[in-house]
Hints:
The chain has helices at 16-27, 40-52, 67-80, 103-131, 143-146, 152-172, 198-204, 213-223; strands spanning 7-11, 31-36, 56-61, 85-88, 134-139, 177-184, 235-238. By secondary structure, it is α/β, with parallel strands linked by helices.
Amino acid sequence: MTNDSRRVLVTGGSGDIGGAICVALARDGWQVIVHANAHRERAEAVATRISDGGGTAEIATFDLTDAAATRAAVDGLLQASQIQALVHNAGVHDDAPLAGMAEAQWRRVIDVSLNGFFHVAQPLLLPMARARFGRIVAVSSVAATLGNRGQVNYAAAKSALHGAAKSLAREMASRNITVNVVAPGIIEGRSTETLFTPDQIKAMIPAARTGTPAEVAGVVAFLCSEVASYVNGQVIGVNGGMG
């Protein structure tokens, strides 16, 4: 089976990193399902960019924290055709020191990154196993490995994906299904452009610059490719040497 007959679902595909991942996968010949929840218009812009470049894209809108809604959406997508890859890029920040963090802040961040991963990945596993092919990539964060003040909830959610991916890789490897994690550092985009000064960037990052969404997308695209078939259960940092 060639990439042009394969479909990939990218959660959080409407964001800066998610959009770059969608475009990179489409460039490699994947039929891309661009997922969004609150920002359908951004997903539509990503799909248009892919179509304008000669690729194939469709949009799926659903709330990853809603198990029933996610299951219904994934089942509907599977009825149309198989899905051979999942990139779980969706995630949210809701920062506060843990001593002052509200329970709703904790639950919201965990729900999107971790429970969302379960909700969207679980219904795809048996179809992938029957096809004896699958690629699953979870997008984490350097905060999961280094920690970050004010992000106990975010770091907990993302580091939990590391354990989930490593365990799931062991469960599914014999079916030619790989499960890996990409952990970006500070990547330029809407969520980071006002957070750090140039001097702070130079002090924090050995590469002395922020990364680009395309640099993260390139690693994700590699992990979804045939040549990455023996890379499994790994956490790969894209962080300019932060750790």
